[in-house]
Each structure stands twice: as structure tokens, then as C-alpha cells.
Amino acid sequence: MTENEQSGLGGKFGAKTSGSQINYGHPHSQELLQSASAVIRESETGRLLLKLLDLKRVPVHVIKGIGQSGFSPEAMTIYMQAPGSATTANPAFIINLIKGLNEAAQELAGFRTPDPRKDIMAYASFIHGRNLDSITEVCKVIKELTKTPHFTNLLDSLTELGLNGVYKAYIDGKSREVLYEQYASAYDAMRGRS
Amino acid sequence: MIHNIGDFAAAAVHPSRVSPAESTLDHTHKFLSTLGVKPGLDFQAS
User: Fold this and answer.
1) A155-179 confidence digits (pLDDT tens)
2) Looking at CA atoms only, how far is residue A180 from chain B in angstroms?
3) Cβ pair A109:B31 closer than 8 A
4) What is this model's ipTM?
5) Which residue in A has a C-alpha nearest to residue B13's C-alpha?
6) Which comes out higher in pLDDT, residue A144 or A16?
7) Other beta carbons within 10 Å of A55
8) What distance in Å separates residue B26's CA from the closest CA in chain A?
9) Which of A85, A99, A84 has the alpha carbon at shortest distance from A36?
10) C-beta atoms surrounding B39 within 10 Å
11) Of B10, B24, B30, the CB nearest to A184
12) What sign does the CA torsion over A40, A44, A47, A51 have?
């Protein structure tokens, strides 16, 4: 990395840092993304989402940490987090990558995130709708992976995230309104815990 | 996992407000399917 390549948090993600700079980049970012992509690529919907990575339409930065992962519409970037010791993607990482890819795809497809300063209720409705859509996409990918060895672990991870109700409603072919009720219950429970 | 938007409880948003007329996922999938496809390429005679 040269001085001219520095950006964001004191330098390119994953690059070596110097002086007082903190290196947030994950040392195994490529392995994590490759192992997650290998699983996602086994699903038809997953292959569609991975076009964003294959065609380099959206950057993905893997950061050392245990915080939230997700797509940032402001930076048009997917930020993933994993413990520094992780060398392969766990089910939660895979689920978060599917969700982030879908959110990026929604934004690129023209569903732009509204400005929260203009109408906070419209913003909240939009974000909750996007959350529901991307979680529905996760359910679709997991369903398509039913006959693979990854299925049980992915479903267990979805349950740990409190989203098993959404998955069951999706599998049962319930309406979007019912899916939203399941999502809202999971979201508000998560918010109560934090 | 879930994008947290602070104090805005999901239950406070009526499901009808998050249901677009056209399915967001269908439209997004159509967009993705067009990525990387060069128009007309499939129809060129060799």
C-alpha cells in the first residue's frame, strides 16, 4: 500500500498500517468471503446475488470484530465483521453476507434509502421493509440449500438470531403481512435485549 | 443481523406501509439477472 492509497479508517482495509494507525481489516478476509461464497453459490438465488461480487459491483470490507454486519447505503459498501481468529465463514457470517448482498442489490435496483431527516416515519417504514425483504431472501437461499450439508447449521443460526418464526412463515407460504408480524416480533425482542 | 434503527419499533409500522405495489424482491432479481449480460450477444450468429 502506498500513501496515496489510504482511505477510510486510516488506510485500505486489510492492508498493513504504520505509526498510530489501527488496522481494522481482517487478516483472513479473502478466506472468509471465499468460504461464504462457496456455500451461497450452491443456491440458485445465491448465485444471482453473487453477481454483485463476481462483477465487482459492490465492495465488501471484512473487519475484525463481533459487532453488526450489514450494507451501508451511504458508503454503498457491505461491512462484514468476524473475530480476528476466524479463518472460515460460520453460518451467521454467511447469513449476514446474503442479507447484505440483497440490500445492496435493492439499492442498486433503484430502491434508494430515503433521507431520515425529511420524513423519519417513511425512513423507518423503508428500513423495516428492506429488513423484511432481505430476511425473506435469506429464507429463500436457505430453503434452496435444504438438501446440502449446510442446511442444518444455517437454520440453527437463523433460530439463534430469533428469525425462525419468519422462516417457518416463509416455508408455510404465509402472506407478507404475516411475515412482517414475525419479523417485527423478532426485531422488537432484539431491541428489548440490547 | 437486523438493521437497527433505534427507537422505531417495528410493531409501530403498519405492514401496509412496508408493502410496495411491485414486489421489491422480484424487481431486484430482474435487475440482477441483467447484470453482466451484453445486449444482443445471445442472438449473434457465429
Assistant:
1) 999 999 999 999 999 999 999 889 9
2) 6
3) yes
4) 0.81
5) A125
6) A144
7) 11
8) 10
9) A99
10) 7
11) B10
12) negative
Exposed e or buried b per residue across A1-17, where buried means at least 16 C-beta atoms within 10 angstroms of its C-beta: eeeeeeeeeebbbbbeb
Please give the model's pTM, rounded to 2 decimal places.
Answer: 0.84
Q: Are A42 and A150 in contact (CB under 8 A)?
A: yes
Residue matched to cell numbers 492492508: A15
Measured between alpha carbons, how far is A113 from A62 in angstroms, rounded to an integer?
23
CB contact under 8 A, B3 and A183: no
pLDDT digits (tens, 9 = 90+) for A21-39: 566 799 999 999 999 999 9
Nine cell digits for residue A193? 435485549
How far, rounded to the nearest angstrom, does the alpha carbon of residue A35 sit from its chain's CA centroid?
15
With beta carbons under 8 A apart, name residues in chain A contacting B1.
68-69, 92, 95-96, 99, 161, 163
Q: Are A86 and A104 in contact (CB under 8 A)?
A: no
Q: Which chain B residue lies closest to A116 (C-alpha atoms)?
A: B5
**Strand pairing category for A70-72 and A60-64:** unpaired
Could A120 and B8 be called an inter-chain contact, meaning their C-beta atoms sit closer than 8 Å? yes
CA A48 from chain centre, in angstroms, equals 15
Q: In the 3-class helix/strand/coil scheme, how is A45-86 assigned residue by residue? A: HHHHHHHHHHCCCCCEEEEECCCCCEEECCCCEEEEEECCCC
Cβ–Cβ below 8 Å for A184 and B20 = no
Q: Give the Cα separation of A21 and A32 in Å (integer).
A: 24
Q: What is the DSSP annotation of A93-121?
A: HHHHHHHHHHHHHHHHTT-PPPPTTT-HH
Report CB contact under 8 Å: B15, A191: no
